[in-house]
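User: Please run a holo structure prediction.
Assistant: Happy to. Please share the sequence and the ligand.
User: Here you go; the ligand is zinc ion.
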Amino acid sequence: MEKIICKKCGKNISEEDFIGNLKVCVHCGFHDMLSAHERIKITADPGSFTELAKDMHSVDFLKFQDLKPYSERIEEAIQKSGINEAVVAGEAAIKGIMASICVMDFNFMGGSMGSVVGEKIKITADNSIEKNLPLLIFCASGGARMQEGIISLMQMAKTVSCIKRLKQEGLAYFCIITHPTTGGVSASFATVADIIITEPGALFCFAGPRVVEQTIKKEVPADFGLAERNLKNGLVDMIVKRHDMRDVLGKLLFMFTNKNLNP
Amino acid sequence: MEKIICKKCGKNISEEDFIGNLKVCVHCGFHDMLSAHERIKITADPGSFTELAKDMHSVDFLKFQDLKPYSERIEEAIQKSGINEAVVAGEAAIKGIMASICVMDFNFMGGSMGSVVGEKIKITADNSIEKNLPLLIFCASGGARMQEGIISLMQMAKTVSCIKRLKQEGLAYFCIITHPTTGGVSASFATVADIIITEPGALFCFAGPRVVEQTIKKEVPADFGLAERNLKNGLVDMIVKRHDMRDVLGKLLFMFTNKNLNP
Amino acid sequence: MEVEKIKNLHKSFLKDTLKSVFKIEKLKRITGFSGVHFNDAEKKLAEKIENYRKVEREAIKSWRIVELSRDEKRPHTPDYINGIFDDFISFSGDRQGYDDKSIITGLGILDGSTVAVIGHNKGSGIKERIEYNFGSSMPQGYRKAARIMDIAQRFGFCLVTFIDTPGAYPALEAEDSGQAGAIARSIYEMFSLDVPTITVLIGEGGSGGALALAIGNFIMMLENSTYSVISPEGCASILWRDSSAAKLASRALKLTSRDLLKLGVIDKIIYEPMGGAQNNPGRMIKIVKSYLKNIIKKYSNLKDFDFKTHRAQKYESIGITAGSVQQKL
Amino acid sequence: MEVEKIKNLHKSFLKDTLKSVFKIEKLKRITGFSGVHFNDAEKKLAEKIENYRKVEREAIKSWRIVELSRDEKRPHTPDYINGIFDDFISFSGDRQGYDDKSIITGLGILDGSTVAVIGHNKGSGIKERIEYNFGSSMPQGYRKAARIMDIAQRFGFCLVTFIDTPGAYPALEAEDSGQAGAIARSIYEMFSLDVPTITVLIGEGGSGGALALAIGNFIMMLENSTYSVISPEGCASILWRDSSAAKLASRALKLTSRDLLKLGVIDKIIYEPMGGAQNNPGRMIKIVKSYLKNIIKKYSNLKDFDFKTHRAQKYESIGITAGSVQQKL
Ligand SMILES: [Zn+2]
Ligand SMILES: [Zn+2]
């Protein structure tokens, strides 16, 4: 039987227990990363997910090369993750209520946001607007994709603009923060949501702890940017455990789309 | 020659110097209180002020009696201040630009806000809306007028509602904080202005320093609620000396009413 | 005259009376001073004392309500929320660095409808009460409330507010981060809402801190709750220069539900179970739920009603003045 | 091959090259190894080196611009404001407890029109620069900026923003008070404006901190200013794992005005006086003033133009992708 070592408490967990517990450590409750499709599987009503813009993929338009060309990195990421980009977009029902949904995948180049992530969020927001559906985005990202230079920075503006149009149509948008969500994604579509939910222990900040430590020349507290500190600081609405997420999302979707007696 | 003792530094000033310097201490720069009409005189273009609702006065509708009946207090305040209520309202030109204007007078029952202050602010705001004029309010108040009970609290809501209507008509509203402005006036029309200007050294807070000290059981800093601290705390836009106020207001009025080339 | 008996009256009120009594005692000692003149003075004094007794009785009554309104055993906002709504979900924070726990915000389902809820939270138990500042909010609390107001507005949810606070928190930190402006902007925000707003005064309605969340199209007040421009203690210490005059101040301020209904500041008194809400919290909550259901249903059926203008007109007409009305310039 | 000469090249790029060179030196030592095969390898290597040299030359050029963009002697926002506007009045604070001096906001008169202005302020002199965090803003700075945006919107003033920041301030306090959300909401707010927005990149355009104030209908960039998703140093230390590769990163990131014009991210390059703006600040400011006047005049005459939609469409069309386009579900 394969053994998993928890990234947080370092204890052993059998793979069976780990998977069975939705990749939450049975010892310390650490919520480990899920792939986009794992997330969709535990969130959406069975069989209700249909994908949008599945084949869309990135282009190395700057011929960006650091220690490795961007084009090679894209290829490797596709191979490694089994998906074409750092976000999987589509439509799904949760507890019977239809919603547009984007799920970021940290396995794909650290969930970094380049043109494709921006465009897929736009497509999903437009899908929401067109069909009058609420929007859910599960975030997991190290920030903007540097290999697309300024164009990746512009995706922050692009996605915020799409969310603004969506909100002005009276549609609900919930953002679910998973570990880790930092940089350009934090500072764009993630934080303009109506409701921000976070998994326990998820890192959610703009500048990561290392960057801040370099700037202020001292150590940051151990809970820097973590869900619990963010809740205390009023930066998120609630912490929801992975096992309860589907229920909470279902209730929120019901509340926000339920207009029967409202004026 | 009469001598004035500065309330702040305690030094002697000749009455002539004091009046000549707009009641600003020549030694320490303390901006002493002005009566409403003194303020209008040094602010408005000569002869341009016309008063609104001059005869409106308070009624002791609760038959409120503490150590003295409210009705007696009203009578005394009228005698002492030479005006009928704690605010003088009207219209004036400043540097040639017409504006509605309210000036509170601390001499009248500590500038407290009861029904008449609320109603006069409403009348002035309505005058602004009707004639498309910007609104200026000079504040000086100890807060709500307790002798009108809950009705005085309601003046906070009433005045904010009037200002909201005015702002939604696209009219500018500037508030000038003079010493002291606290309580219900701070927490209503004073703080919803487009621009908040304060005289140097003016106390501007919700709960006064004594109340706060009683609550937190320790001394507050010496600059508690004062203009300079408020500027640092981002609560006011600028500190303007009495001698410069007319110029600054003139410029602001010009900027906010100047639409020649704007889209 | 029984001088002893009137010693039970409040000292501030007694000063004047006692002066008269001593004057009469003195007069008695003057030889030959008697007859009609003396009896008139006695009669006047008796009247005066009787009047003071009435004031005192009223003061005791008002004060009893002040005490009831503050009773820890009364149901508080979380009790009402739990008892009234299905599936309440609470939201946290001002998104700017602070989550003020003295204010609860969230969404709940009532009678099938989604309702936005804001309420003061005094906390239960001493630890929580200290953490929540005994229901006295920081500026950040009003900014948290503004977030749910915005959600109510955009999604068309009725907004219900539960008022129960001694007043905004008078602390250095609160002042430094703009307490006055936070209250004013909360009032401003409530006047900006197109959706119906319903306020329930459930305990203490303390000054600006209460008003900030109480701009209602419909305002209901529990029989033994209070709503006042200042606490009786604060008023007494300022106007009587004697905080022990709080009972007299509580009468003078007219802060009970009956006073406020007469003054037109509230729309409805919700009567409490015998002896007060604390005697039967469950029943109290059911009663409030029933009134809330009715008013929400009524408002939901008013399809073209302009709730925003209604609120503006309602509050802008409050005030009693004499002398000139508006002359146009 | 002159191995010495290529030692001047950057070590990260050299690693690969040097490996090849050593390989060839080794090959040379093998008896009988010569002829076509060897000449081919040499030829290839020469090409490779030439290519690296080109990269290096470009990197040096980009880096020179990075240095210029950070030159303390360049005119900064206060210089532009003083030189361009009549009667500028600056406004302070977020009304919530903080006045971030790294951002200047206010109103000025240009060509008779009132213009709303926001600009980063790096401060002059080391004391001011420290106080202003070297132009790196706190969340409160963006909230201060939002106030003047709101004024611009309500009064119909053109909004001009001057961008000059290394990026948002990466400090614990900034994170705790919601740096990410403050940037996002500033972007959101700029997309909400009906009035024209004009952005001038005058120095460093650092990442989210720059973008937060740079959502322009028209974006002008000074010849030697930069605009980048990350600082070259930051990029080098992440991607090259070697912060000394900053020059190479500065080239790879395409952060110069010429790069950005090609990429369609800016609308105009404003050329600088010979050698850079720092050589003739007065002239630089006059040039910027002239362009600003023109574009404001042009926008003021576009009476029915939908600036908000223009901005949305402009930014929403940025991005280069391949593969499926939107298939409808
Ligand atoms: Zn663990
Ligand atoms: Zn002095």
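The interface with chain D takes residues 167, 170, 172, 191, 194-196, 231-238, 248, 251-252, 254-256, 258-263 of chain B (CB under 8 Å).
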